[in-house]
Design a protein that fits this description.
single chain, alpha/beta, Nucleotidyltransferase, domain 5, 5-stranded mixed sheet, 8 helices
Length: 201
């Protein structure tokens, strides 16, 4: 029987750090560490979807956001499918993914969003959370969500560990995972640990 793994994502505007984890405390493995582009890196300004939309006439802003979301959605779907193919080719079974969950809501009225800079930031964060979650679901993964500020305590609690011990074990993957193994990758690994524990819940 293939060992179970789960994938975790640390989301940014237009991209995400992805880490797959298998095993349990004391025997963690990292089958994959990858940067996932969600919108083209060749034009960084386009990643800031709502910022760019705020510069457009109202008649064009909605279409711009719709097209950007569709592009990010398809890019994420393909990226997740490629990740799953890679992990499964290395003889791991994967059924769940962990991602961040925003505690804020985004107004349905785009004009309201574009009038507020803080809401624009929130909308961009939520957009990329949604497209990654949808891409995971489209690829047959159970999606486990948690607020980022709570991920270490949630993941540690799921495994019956103290938070400091989980951090130490994930930090210890640095040697096998290679660089970069910084905050982004460690948070993604914590999401993977939470998803790995809860995938059969």
């Amino acid at each position: 029987m293939a060992p179970l793994a789960a994938i975790g994502f640390k989301l940014h505007t237009g991209w995400a750090a992805a880490v797959a984890i298998s095993g349990g405390p004391g025997e963690l493995q990292g089958p994959l560490r990858r940067r996932v582009e969600l919108l083209p890196s060749s034009n960084p300004s386009l990643r800031f979807v709502y910022h760019e939309a705020s510069k457009l006439p109202a008649s064009q802003a909605e279409e711009f956001v719709r097209r950007a979301r569709a592009t990010a959605q398809e890019t994420a779907r393909i990226a997740v499918a490629d990740i799953l193919a890679y992990i499964r080719a290395h003889n791991f079974e994967i059924r769940a993914a962990g991602i961040s969950l925003s505690s804020r809501t985004v107004p349905a009225d785009l004009s309201v969003v574009l009038r507020s800079h803080p809401v624009i930031h929130t909308a961009e964060g939520v957009l990329f959370q949604q497209v990654v979650a949808s891409a995971c679901a489209d690829n047959g993964l159970k999606v486990i969500s948690a607020r980022e500020r709570e991920i270490w305590s949630n993941a540690a609690g799921a495994w019956g560990l103290k938070e400091a011990e989980l951090r130490k074990q994930i930090d210890g993957l640095r040697k096998s995972m290679g660089a970069p193994w910084a905050t982004d990758q460690k948070i993604a690994a914590a999401y993977a640990m939470l998803a790995l524990r809860r995938e059969d819940a």
